[in-house]
Amino acid sequence: MEPTAPVFDIQRFSLHDGPGVRSLVFIKGCTLHCPWCQNPESQASRPVIAFYADRCQESFECAAVCPNRAIRVEGYRVDHERCDLCARCVAACAYGALRLIGEHLTPTQLVDKLLVDLPYYENSGGGVTFTGGEPTLYPDFMRRVLELCKAVGIHTNLETAGTFSWAKWEPILAMLDLIYFDLKILDAELHEAHLGHGLSRIMENAANLTRRGFPVEFRMALVPGYTDTPANIVAASDFLHRLGYGAVHLLAYHNMGEAKIDIIQGTQPKLGLTRYSDESWRELVRMFRERGIEVLNESP
Ligand code: SF4
Ligand code: SF4
To answer: Is domain 48-101 classified as CATH 3.30.70.20?
Structure first.
């Protein structure tokens, strides 16, 4: 039987997540719980029925088709405890107020969807970028997906927070053309406290990848008060130097993920942080450069 993974989105024609024109494949399930997560719907591996309250006309076709009495009349429409994700309500709702987030696909089903854009990948030097969530949660699935991509010459990139088992993943990583490795908090205690996961395996995996010549690009999300502190920027810069890397791609915090917390009835906190001004962003870039780290992107 083919393995599956819960894919929750495929965005086509991206120009920012690797070379050329790309498809971004988002896979549900994550090993970390970043409080600033831009994709809160990606954190749990179980698919979920999302409810968009602003679109709901209270017509209750959803309740009429639900076999599990999982539709509520008041408040958030879906009782997740009762819901078995049959998605009949999604089909019945004419207003688009319900959506299934996450669909288990086999590697063959996923790659068939990606192949429709093969001419774009070929003409632009592009390909596919796997992100999430944390795609390394699904080694059997990803191995097969990468084999299928390789068989037709699709360039592949995988974004990871680096929490994977090296023994399990080394042969799979060898099939990738590019690896985006996300750095977050470089202090072990703060990492554990904010992200719910130790730092040592992440650092070991980063060292293993660079030592063995894997094609890695380090990326770092800057989040006010969490990852953009002077101490964290110094620690990240020193870590990159120790790995023999002199460059990083910076990603600026934005709060668009917070709107998605309510549609899944999520428990992630709303941080209410403000976005960086041009001036504060330039200052952060300057701090990396001062430590001898090239910033690959001038603007966020
Ligand atoms: S069918 Fe759609 S619009 Fe009607 S009550 Fe259900 S969620 Fe709301
Ligand atoms: S997905 Fe199925 S079980 Fe869940 S609320 Fe909709 S109709 Fe009911």
So the answer is: yes
